[in-house]
Amino acid sequence: METNNIISPENLVYKKTSLLTDKILTFCPGCGHGTTHRIVMEVVDEMGIQSEVIGVAPVGCSVLAYDFMNIDMVGAAHGRAPAVATGIKRVYPEKFVFTYQGDGDLAAIGTSETIHACNRGENITIVFINNGIYGMTGGQMAPTSLEGMKTSTSPYGRNVETMGYPLKITDLIARLEGVYYVSRQAVHTAAAVRKAKKAIRIAFENQKLKKGVSFVEIVSNCNSNWKQSPVKANQWMEENMFPYYPLGDIKVGGVLV
Fold this sequence. Notes:
By secondary structure, the chain is an alpha/beta fold. 36% of the residues lie in helices and 19% in strands. It has a single domain (26-256), classed as Thiamin diphosphate (ThDP)-binding fold, Pyr/PP domains (Rossmann fold, 3-Layer(aba) Sandwich), CATH 3.40.50.
């Protein structure tokens, strides 16, 4: 029943979590960041840990997280989020600590921090957005850009003979002994969002077990820098990104799947 434009509770099927601020998302229309923000905050809300969670956002599109996530957030220099998260977790071991990073950050300038934090088995959660490109700084080629993929710094497509192969950083991380859980998901469909949210929930719950790093990759689009509409970008992602970065759990309970 609706009275004076107010929806009765029994008819309310969806409500935005209060852990997202009222600021309008400034991500490009169709970008996966906004949806990922929502499900991360929904997980925190549903777990009732708002006052116990600390997020770390570095440089790139990820840096905007502190504008939209209504939790304690800490800024980090480019690539240094795992190092900052390590310090926070060791000082406040009872807190739920997570990083929110893009591929240019985590898999390029931050490769060292990422690998060593994972190898040490720091009891943190890492959320990794992989759209195969530098989204904020001009669409340059990233370590995860696919072979033949055109970017502002590879206008004729990535040539593996001179530019190397796309880096499957998540697969490398999964083989480190300090990593307890690794999953690769997406947020381009309702079904994919449900799976991604489940993976993020598991990653946060794992901090209670004190078993090491939980790592969730979200394969996303960057329709602006891919020069495609959101619909076309999602189609291209399904046809090109997913075969190289297949979705699903990679490591569960410290065991490779």
